[in-house]
Amino acid sequence: MTVWDSARRAREARLQAGARYAQGKRVERKDATALLEAVMQPGDRVCLEGDNQKQADLLAQALAAVDPGKIHDLHMVQSGVVLPEHLDVFELGIARRLDYAYSGPQSQRIAKLLFGGKIELGAVHTYLELFARYYVDLTPQVALIAAVSADRDGNLYTGPNTEDTPAIVEATAFKDGVVIAQVNQIVDKLPRVDIPGDWVNFVIESDKPFYVEPLFTRDPAAITETQILTAMLAIKGIYGPYGVQRLNHGIGFNTAAIELLLPTYGERLGLKGKVATHWALNPHPTLIPAIESGWVKQIHSFGSEVGMDDYIRARSDVYFTGPDGSLRSNRAFSQVAGLYACDMFIGSTLQIDLQGNSSTVTADRVAGFGGAPNMGSDARGRRHPSAPWLQAGKEADPDGPAPLRRGRKLVVQIGETFGDKNVPMFVENLDALKLAEKLNLELAPVMVYSDDVTHIVTEEGIANLLLCRDKDEREQAIRGVAGYTDVGRGRDAKMVQRLRERGIIRRPEDLGIDPLDADRRMLAARSIKDLVRWSGGLYDPPSKFRNW
Q1: Which of 104-118, 124-138, 385-399, 516-530 has the lowest mean pLDDT?
Q2: DSSP string of 204-246?
Q3: Which is deepest, 142, 162, 421, 538, by most CB within 10 Å?
Q4: CB neighbour class for 153 (10 Å; exposed up to 12, middle 13-18, buried from 19)
């Protein structure tokens, strides 16, 4: 006789085992590890909420303290590998297999554990890809999440950093999994209900707020004149000509420079109201001057940013906020917006090869991708037109019939030809290929594939890859903006000159830009303190960014 509710029965057994540590749904902090040992089983798929900002740190510590004799060979399915405990569980034998998306702070350690055979790698995903698999073949049996507060019934208020929580909880709760939440406090009444209590099985009140990484804060004082030059090139050579209004910026000083030039250089070019009005973007502090100057109409955010809460509350016309005034972020929805509703993604990378493939994997770092492959890919399912999308499509396929021609998302890689420690951004072959060979991976961890990249911007100029008609033109266009790297020095000078004559390569002087004009005085704010002033004192930066 077929049993159709075996998973539900298994969950009830887990809940009964954990109930001895709970009063209702509440579990004391000291019993957190014992609770995990009671509800988990060897080989479970476990989602420990590690976003790229918000961390369920108390639960991470509790998981790292379980007895490996009882709990072992876990399959961790989490978007961010950020805390030391996220990797401690592999060294201790508690976990064995990993599917993830981002590992910035742990990128070097995760590389060592992968090479050392401590981690069995499933795949390095994009955020949306991993969320999707939660609902197909990577559904968590136990989810360990974080929220700001809970009430007595287990309803959760996630606050501004909702991030991945809805995607994790819904997949787990509605497929007979166990959901355990750490919260900063338990209260009588929540500001709003973000996660219903009947989706949550156990709640643990932490002794301190969960950790949030100020991942998107860039100090304007660290922006260089070269980054200002690349920002000027991008604004005048891409934002303006395409009329890009709906966009996403990646993390980095190059895009921070663009944000700080909108109210100055962008204003001088007459682009206000014509570009950069609607965003899928975390609350970047460097966007404050553009918001205050009336450039920005609307922002939907993947997560929040430390110190921006009061500013967001006071700018509800711009941000998505609840009745309580706090931001409601949602990584899954914002990734979808970036994939389908934005006309441009512009971000940085560590390596670009001769075809235009890019990756953040190097010989000793496996940083993951986060959302860049979603932001930086051409959504083949898109059907609504917009002027930038149609223009890019026409450049890529000038001879195709207009009603049947696909548009193209603008996918821009921006950076300096030489990065940190004078390491070249342009390479003959990506280190991702070496990693794939070492780990015997079937697929190299490429962040943005070459056929999605439309433009590359460096201090040497802009390469418009949409206008290239064959792989040789594409390679020479990339070499043509690669500067004095080995890749750049290998260019065919005559062919690069022909590409320049056709407008495929555009130097600063071709755009009427004098590199000597790239001056820090052009920035709307030149320090964190300037950003605070622009915000009217509403922005409260983390202490490590204060120098006054």
Answers
A1: 104-118
A2: EE-SSPPEE--TT---GGG--HHHHHHHHHHIIIIIHHHT--E
A3: 162
A4: middle
Q: Does residue 458 register a pLDDT over 90?
A: yes
**Residues 528/219, Cβ–Cβ less than 8 Å:** yes
First to last CA, the chain: 73
pLDDT at 548 over 80: no
Q: How many residues does the chain have?
A: 548
Lookup: tokens for 210: 């969960």
Specify whether the CB–CB gap between 303 and 214 falls below 8 A. Answer: no
Contacts for 170 with CB less than 8 Å, ≥ 6 apart = 199
To the question of pTM greater than 0.85 for the whole model, the response is yes
Inter-axis angle of helices 165-173 and 127-134, to 10 degrees?
20
Contact call for residues 529 and 482 (beta carbons, < 8 A): no
Residue corresponding to tokens 């077929």:
2
- Is residue 548 within 8 Å of residue 529, measured between CB atoms? yes
Distance of CA 435 to the CA centre of its chain: 22
> Which residues have CB under 8 Å from 466's CB, separation 6+?
392, 395, 396, 408, 454, 455
The CA distance from 19 to 397, in Å, is 63
What does the alpha-carbon distance between residue 544 and residue 99 come to, in Å, rounded to a whole number? 32
The DSSP output letter for 330 is -
Q: Angle CA(332)–CA(167)–CA(333) in degrees, nearest 5?
A: 20
Return phi, psi of residue 226, to 5°.
Answer: -65, -40
Contact (Cβ atoms closer than 8 angstroms) between residue 272 and residue 266: yes
DSSP 8-state class, residue 158 = -
Look up residue 272 and give its two tokens.
């206000």
DSSP-based three-state secondary structure for 92: coil
Is a pLDDT exceeding 90 seen at residue 365? no
User: Burial, 385: exposed, middle or buried (Cβ in 10 Å; 0-12, 13-18, 19+)?
Assistant: exposed
pLDDT in tens, 106-143: 988 998 999 899 999 999 999 999 999 999 999 999 99
Conformation bin of residue 422: beta by default, left when phi > 0, alpha when psi is -120 to 50: left
Amino acid at 206: S
Single-letter code of the amino acid located at 130: L
pLDDT reading at 435 higher than 80:
yes
Question: What one-character-per-residue DSSP string does 324-391 give?
Answer: TS-B---HHHHHHIIIII-SEEEE--SEE-TTS-EES-BTTB--B-TTHHHHTS--TT-----HHHHH
- Could you count the other beta carbons within 10 Å of the beta carbon of residue 471? 11
Report angle CA 294, 297, 298 to the nearest 5 degrees: 140
The pLDDT tens digits for 289-337 are 999 999 999 999 999 999 999 999 999 999 999 999 999 999 999 999 9
21 pLDDT more than 90 = yes
φ, ψ dihedrals at 146, nearest 5°: -130, 140
Q: What percent of the chain is modeled with pLDDT above 90?
A: 91
